[in-house]
Automatic annotation (TrEMBL):
Residues 10-320 form the Enoyl reductase (ER) domain. It comes from Devosia litorisediminis. Keywords: NADP, Oxidoreductase. PANTHER family: QUINONE OXIDOREDUCTASE PIG3-RELATED. InterPro entries: ADH-like_N, ER, GroES-like_sf, NAD(P)-bd_dom_sf. The keyword Oxidoreductase applies. This is NAD(P)-dependent alcohol dehydrogenase. It holds the Pfam family ADH_N. One of its GO terms (molecular function) is oxidoreductase activity, acting on NAD(P)H. The keyword Cell cycle does not apply.
Length: 322
């Protein structure tokens, strides 16, 4: 099979498409023929080992996980002898788990991993992108931000993979949503349900005073210190991006009243992600959430896909189709 592989850390050019043996599922695994996967800034971070902390679990000198790719959509090609949840031919989507490997024509996934049947009547490939943004956005909006009817929520980076899902989830939970984007993405976030849009090239959202219950910095480009005055008295600043600054802010603000929080999808138990994907199927059925696709690349164009994601200008998801 073909797989996008890297044997060293670095720029997009370290990734090469190679032919390797098709994997064989173990007794509790399914083998998925990948229809699509997605490239995100998290993949870029693993590719570059930046932040450097990635080397601690991703390989000190060279990448331990030579095939990147977490979220996938595909069709079950083979099942292990003890698999009961899936059968050959099922359309599935979700996360392949902490060892990655989704950027390939086939990937093995534990049958009790974060993978679910795709709903009928929904195009399969975009679910790879949606699963990726959703699995990060949901715990921030529902659990860390405790967004509820009437909450005033600002989402910085609302046009990104995580931000675009966060806008839809915050609206689903009944919030009044302000989306921060550059002007070119204003219509897109309005179509996703944003009540207000701030063009970040014209206005700095941190100049607001006591305006928001939750500021979700989906791209981690601001900080708790800058956002503090824009939060209400007991407001919460959430960031997706790990840094010493946010770790310090979390410690310093743990007793409130205003708090800073970070959550990491990679550290969530697979069982929790599985439950959330089942919720996502309900949200899709209810029309509460939909995928937003920016561009599709063939596997052979994987280097260009990484270059585009590195530009930090994509709106919604980048898919890689097999
Ligand atoms: N905590 C976790 O577990 C976890 C999991 C996955 C990813 N992440 C991290 O989450 C971050 C966001 O990922 P993503 O995939 O959603 O990003 P993304 O899709 O690549 O975000 C792209 C968007 O960011 C916006 N943007 C660029 N520069 C900005 C700035 N200075 N201020 C505000 N917005 C800016 C751009 O929109 P506009 O031009 O319209 O503003 C662009 O459309 C990444 O750093 C990723 O590593 C964290």
């Amino acid at each position: 099979m073909k797989a996008a592989m890297q044997s060293r850390y670095g720029g997009p050019e370290v990734i090469e498409v190679r032919d390797i043996a098709k994997p064989v599922p173990q007794e509790d695994e399914i083998l998925v023929r990948v229809v699509a996967t997605t490239v995100t800034l998290a993949d870029s971070a693993f590719r570059k080992a930046d932040p450097v902390i990635i080397r601690l679990f991703g390989g000190l000198f060279r990448p331990r996980m030579t095939i990147l790719g977490d979220a996938i959509a595909g069709v079950v090609d083979a099942v292990g002898s003890k698999v009961t949840r899936f059968k050959i031919g099922d359309a599935v989507y979700g996360s392949v788990g902490p060892n990655l490997g989704g950027m390939a024509e086939y990937v093995r996934v534990k049958q009790d991993g974060a993978i679910v049947l795709a709903p009928d009547g929904v195009e399969l490939a975009p679910l790879a992108g949606l699963a990726s943004g959703y699995l990060t956005a949901m715990p921030f909006i529902r659990d860390e931000g405790q967004v509820r009817p009437g909450s005033k929520v600002l989402i910085n980076g609302a046009a990104g993979s995580i931000g675009a899902v966060a806008v839809q989830l915050a609206k689903h939970f009944g919030a009044e949503v302000t989306a921060v984007v550059s002007g070119r993405n204003a219509e897109m976030v309005q179509a996703l349900g944003a009540d207000h849009v701030i063009d970040r090239t014209r206005r700095d959202f941190t100049t607001a005073r006591a305006a928001y219950d939750v500021i979700f910095d989906a791209v981690g480009k601001s900080s708790f210190a800058k956002s503090r005055d824009a939060l209400k008295a007991d407001g919460i600043y959430l960031s997706t991006v790990m840094s010493f600054g946010i770790l310090w802010d979390m410690l310093a603000t743990r007793k409130g009243p205003k708090r800073a929080k970070l959550a990491t999808t990679g550290l969530r138990p697979e069982a929790d992600k599985l439950k959330d994907l089942e919720v996502l199927n309900d949200l899709l059925a209810a029309g509460a959430v939909r995928p937003v696709i920016d561009r599709r690349f063939a596997l052979a164009a994987i280097v260009e896909a990484h270059r585009y994601v590195d530009s930090e200008t994509k709106a919604g998801d980048v898919l890689v189709t097999m």
